[in-house]
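Regression report. Comparing outputs from two consecutive submissions.

Submission 1:
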Amino acid sequence: MKPKVDLRKIKAEELKTIDLDTVDINLEAPDFEPQRQYYFMAKCREWVREFERKYGRRPFAFIQTFGCQMNAKDSEKLIGILRQTGFEESPQQEEADLILYNTCTVRDNANQKVYGHLGYLQTLKKKRPHLIIGLCGCMMQEAQVVEKIQKSYSFVDLVFGTHNIYKLAELLYGRLKGKSMVIDIWESTKQSVEELPARRKYAFKSGVNIMYGCNNFCSYCIVPYVRGRERSRQPEEILDEIRRLAADGVKEVMLLGQNVNSYGKTLEEPMSFARLLRQVAQIDGVERIRFMTSHPKDLSDELIEAMRDCKKVCRHLHLPLQSGSSRILEQMNRHYTKEQYLDLVERIRQAVPEISLTTDIIVGFPGETEEDFQETLDVVRKVGFDSAFTFIYSKRTGTPAAAREDQIPEEVVKDRFERLLKTVQQIASQVCARDLGKIRDVLVESVNDHQEGYVSGRLSSNLLVHFPGDASLIGQILPVKLTEAKGFYYMGMVNKEAV
C-alpha cells in the first residue's frame, strides 16, 4: 500500500506527477492553489468509485463550449480536471452523467441559445435524475442571468463564472455531497491558477493564456464587465508553460488575451507584448506562433517589427475594425479613426507584405447612417481583408450603447448586413487566391471529413488546405503545392521533392 500524501507539503510543480489515489483526503484541504484543487479532485474520485460500483462503468462528462478561443482554452482545463477525477469524455450529451456548458455572452443570441438548450436538458434530467448539469463562463457573470437560472431552471446543479473556472472540482464535490444548486460567482479576482490538468483538443497545437480581462470598455461590449479588468501573467510563467508544451510535442501556440497588445502593463516590471513575442520565438520546438485578439489602438511599431523579424510568427493578423466611420468609432469608444486604421494597415503591410488580415465588423450600431455604413464598405475595399466576421449589433444590457434611443430599424440593419457580407465575400475570394500555384508549408490538423483519402491543414495565413493524405500526417508541417483556389480554401498536393 502506497504511503498517503499531504498535499499541503507538495510543491506546485510536483502535482502533475501525483497519484491522486495516494492523497490523504482525511486531512484538511490546503488553503492555497493549485494544491487545494488537487485535493478536491481526489475527493471527487471517491464518488467516481461509488458510481463505478453501482453502474459498472465510469461516469461520462460532456462539455459544450460557446464563444471565443479563451473559452475553448477554459474548456480544455475543465475536461482535464474531470478526467483526472475519473470521468470519461462523452461525445454526446444524451449519454452523459455530467453536462457542462461553458457560456458566451458577447451577443444576445448566445444567451438565447443556452436557454434553448436548457429546456432540453430538463427533459434529460427527468429521465435520468442522477444527471449533474453545470453552467459556467461569461454568461454566468451577469446577475440577471443567475437570477433567472435560480428562478426558472432550478434543476441546474452548478453555476460559476469566468474568474473561478479552476474551482470545478471543489464546486462539484460540494454538489456531490448533497448541496442544492451550488452558485459561486466572483465579481473580480487578481488570482490566476494555470497549473491544473488540461486535455488539449490537438496534440500538436495549444492556446496559452497570457492575460485576462479587458480595460477598453467599448460602448457596445459586455466583456470588461464579465471578464474583469486586465491582468497579465508573469512572462516567465508563460514561457515555462510554452517550454513544457513544446517538450510535449506542441508545434504551434496561440497566445490568448482579450487585447494582447496591451500585455504587460499591469506587471510590477512592465513588459511589452513585442518583447514577449520575441522570447517565445526563441523556444526550441515551437515552429509557429499565433496571437489574438489585437486592438488597433495598441498595436505598436515595436510589435510590427517583431512580427517582421520573427519568422515563427504566422503571417496572419486579426485586427478588428468594427466600423469604418470615424464618427461611429468615437461613439464606440474605440480610440482610433478610419484614417489611423488605414495607416496602421499600410505600415503592417510594408513590414510584412505577405500578411493575411482578418477583421470583425459590426453593422447597425445605434445612430449609424447610410453614410457611416458606406465608410465601412470603403475600408473593406481599401484593405482587402482575407475574411471578416460580420455581426449585426446586439444590445447588451449594462453597456452604454444599449441605453441609446437611436437604435437602427431591423430591416435597415439586415439590408446593410447583406450588402456588407456580399462585398466581403467578393473581395475575400479574390484575395485568398493570391498563393495559387505556389508551394507553402501546411500544418496538417485532421483527416478530411468530406473527402476520403484527404487531410486538412492550415497555412501560416490561417487558410485551410485540403490535399491527399492519411492520419499519419497529422501534426506534421509539410510543403504543399496549392493547385486550386476555392474562394476560402485551397486544394493542394504534397510537394514530395521538398519533403
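Submission 2:
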Amino acid sequence: MRLVCAPLNGGFGAGAAADLEVVLFSHADRPTRAAAGANVVDIIRRAKLRPATRAWDLLSIALSVIAADTGVRRDESPDGWTREINLQIAVSDPTFWTAQKDLFEKQLRFLTTDLWTLSFTGGGVQPVPPNPPAMPPEDCVALLSGGLDSLIGAIDLVSGHGKRPYLVSQVAQGDKEKQAYFASKLGGGLKHLQLNHDANCPGVNERSQRARSIIFLAYAVLLATSLKRYHDGQAVTVYVCENGYISINPALTPGRLGSLSTRTTHPIFIGLFQSLLDVAGLRVRIENPYQFKTKGEMLAGCADQAFLKKNAHTTTSCGRFARNGFRHCGRCVPCLIRRASFHAWGEPDKTVYVYSKLSKNDSDHSGFDDVRSAAMAVAQVRSEGLDRWLGASLNSVLMGDTMPYKQVVARGLEELGKFLKATGVK
C-alpha cells in the first residue's frame, strides 16, 4: 500500500498518486484522507520550545509511520499479517533522509515485521522558532507512559540519582490524568509535556500498533533537543524505562512469533534508532537503565518504596485496558508479568483485574490463551532448557554478549512461573 504524507500546504499535487494521503500536523480536510499530529505544533509553540530541525523531520517520519501502522490492515495482506508499506514523506531535508532510508527501513522491519519502503520529498513542516525561546534547565528527558516501569524509572531518577528529568508522554485515553498526577508529585513537581499523535485513518483501523515506540522516541528527541544543555552543545540522555524481560519479550510459544510478541524496546531496535540519531548529528542518547532487571527486581529496588506502594496499583500495564472499560484484564502477557512482579515484590497487588482467578476450569475461563502459553513456556524451559526455548530471540551479531540478556529473561520467567504456581495454574 502506498501512502503520501505531507502538510496540507504541499505534497498532494500531481504525480503523488497514493492509496492513502496522510495530512501531517493538522486535521484532514476531507473524509478520504488520514491525519496525524494535528495539535503537536501548537503545543510546542505554546511551550516556547525550539527543537532541532532534524528532530522535526524525525517527528514527521514517525507520524507517517504511525499513520501507516494505523491505516494499513494486516488482515488484508497475503499472509494475514505481513504488510508491504510504501511511504512518501515530506521533510525539510530530503537529501539527508534519502541517504538514511536503508537504516530507517531496517529498524522499521525489525520493529513491526512488515516490509517498508521509504522515500522523501521537500516541503516538510518547520515551525517558526519562538523569540525568545524557552531554555528548560532540566538535565535529561524521561518517557512517562502511566505504566509501572516508567513510574519506577521517574522515581529512581529523582529520588535515587538526584536528576531533574523533563517528562514526556503520549496521551492515551485512561492514562492522561495519572500521567499528570505522577509528574506533579515527583520531586515536588516535574515539567511534563503531553502529546498525542491523533492518528486517524478512514475505515476500520489496524489495532496491533507495533510501531508505537517510534513516536514515543520522536517526542523525546524533539524535547531533548529543546533543553538548554542541548543548545549549549552538550548531549542529552533520554531514559526509556522498561524491564529487561519485556524488553526482549521472547515469544512464549512458536505460534506467537509474529502477532503476539512486540519489540517496542528491544535492544536491537533501540540500537538501530541510536545509530540513526548519531548519523543525524542529534546529540541524544537513548538509555534503558533496567535492561538487565526484571519487573519484580525493579519494584524491590525502587528508591521511594512509600510512594511506590501508594501508587503502583494505579498504573497501567494491560494490553487490553481500553477494551475492558479501563480495567486490567489480568490474563494478557503484560498483566501476567505485572502480577508476577507484585508476587515477587511481596507487596499486596491492589490492582482490580477483570479476570482475577486464572486457574478456574469453566467456560468463562477457557479462553485464557496467554495463561496457557505462559505455563507452557515455563514447563518447556524446565524440561528442555532456556536456549532451546529462546530460539532466535537474541542475536549476538547485533547485541554482543547475549549472556546478560539470557539471565534476565531466565529470572523474569522464573518470576512468572512462581506466580502461576501460587495462583494454581497447572
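Expected: both submissions complete independently.
Actual: both completed, but the second showed a warning that disappeared on reload.
Relevant detail on submission 2: The mean pLDDT is 93.
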